[in-house]
Amino acid sequence: MAAARGPRTIRRKIDLDNFQVASVKTARDINRRIVLNLIRKHQPISRAELSRHSRLQRSTVSVITQQLIAERWVKMGASGNLPRGRKPKFLHINGERSGIIGVDVRSKKTTMMLADLEMRSLAQDSLLTSTDPDEFVSELAGRIRALMKTYSRLSFEGIGVALPGRIDPGSNRLIFAPNLAWKSVDLKSALELATGLEVELENAANTCALAEIWSGAHSEDVHNLVAVTVSDGIGVGMILNGQLVRGTSGLAGEFGHVTIQENGPLCGCGNRGCWEACACNAAAVRYFMEAAPASSGPRGPQPTFDYILRLAQQGDPQANAALDQMARQMGAGVAMTVAGLAPDVIVIIGEVTQAWGRVGKIIDEIVAKRLSMGTRTRIIATNPDTQPRLRGAIALVLQKHFGVPHLV
Which SS3 state, helix, strand or coil, does residue 113 take? Predict the structure, then answer.
């Protein structure tokens, strides 16, 4: 009988135009990050336990932890109790060492969070998103400087920004954002100049995918995860084989602008029938308005998506019909994503998850109907109260110290 096969190993081709040869420093950097992540995951943890988890020699672990303590990344806690021998000292991440600022830019409102190294929120603020990017940077930078002054005891590691659009990987400019009234914008340079901090930019859906990998309730064997953000538009962030996928132009994951309805509603990108135009929050509002009786008299202000959610919770048939139609269109796009990428899990993120008991069932039904071959992909919702965009923006900066170093 043939031997059972283990998990398939993914092998990356070495980029011979852009590589770094291994050195003693490379090995030290990798080992340091392994130890730092093990402390983050298993804290409080002793040096002996670190040696067992990492399979590094105790002397190597001791050298690394002493360096991390000296640099204040790690702190010592209480002593353990053993029947014999020296009592072990337990190690923790020093969450109070540094502050990281996360910024979630949306078409109408921008939210910012100051978090510590444990991704715990220390402060939050918000501002209206100006249609003038220069005006926006000026006001945002002022809020950030005020936050830095209030928390001057912290050393600031940087700013992570989640954007409703795509970033050109070469120039770091925002190049595609249909729901913002901005054109090509160099937000990174302008914000760095105004604050003196290093800035990391990323598409909002990508930041949500990072948030799920860094702090989501997923097992360690989840290496293929897709985050679908549903708000003013629809974004898709992809972690495939453990790596964030951006594509050559930075536009990988724009499933929201794939046509699912010929001659469908006009999308902000200029095309018709895009998944986004058929399944975002604004689409649900449109379905709600279209279902209004013709004899209902003069219309008041256009309802918001939050208003429709509240009506649906009260059992309003018109609101429930609008959510059902939105869910069917979401299911069509999710089925396309599952068929194309076959991830371990798809995480739906946005206000629509407040009605997940209704919406999730419809999405599952549509996916099962469209994928006759079946699927092992789990489709789950994230609680919007956990603020995945902001957590992902924090992770953009955090991964500089905790993520895999760029080597080959």
Answer: strand
Q: What are phi and psi of 237, to 5 degrees?
A: -110, 140
E strand map for 171-220 = 174-176, 199-203
pLDDT tens-digit readout, 152-179: 988 999 999 999 888 888 888 888 787 7
Cβ atoms of 212 and 347 within 8 Å: the answer is yes
Structure tokens, 160: 């992570």
Torsion over CA of 337, 326, 378 and 356, rounded to 10 degrees?
160
Q: How confident is the prediction for the chain on average, in pLDDT?
A: 87
**Res 46 pLDDT > 80:** yes
- Pairing between strand 234-240 and 243-244? antiparallel
For each of the domains in the chain, give its residue range(s) and CATH number, in order of start. 24-81+88-93 (1.10.10.10), 98-208+390-402 (3.30.420.40), 211-386 (3.30.420.40)
pTM above 0.90, yes or no: no
Compute, in degrees rounded to 10, the torsion defined by CA atoms 356, 357, 361, 364: 40
Q: Which residue has the tokens 């945002």?
A: 140
pLDDT, tens digit, 9 for 90 and up, residues 278-336: 999 999 999 999 987 654 544 567 899 999 999 999 999 999 999 999 999 999 999 99
Torsion of CA 363, 368, 374, 380, to 10 degrees: 20
Query: In sequence order, what are the beta bridge partners of 115?
Result: 100, 121
Cβ contacts of 334 within 8 Å, gap of 6 or more: 228, 346, 348, 363, 366, 367, 379
Q: Which of 39-48, 236-245, 280-289 has the highest average model confidence (pLDDT)?
A: 280-289
Residues in CB range of 27: below 8 A, 6 or more apart: none
For residues 361 and 98, what is the distance between their CA atoms, to the nearest angstrom? 42
Phi then psi for residue 157, to 5 deg, are -80, -25
Please tell me the distance from the alpha carbon of residue 255 to that of residue 62, in angstroms, as a whole number: 48
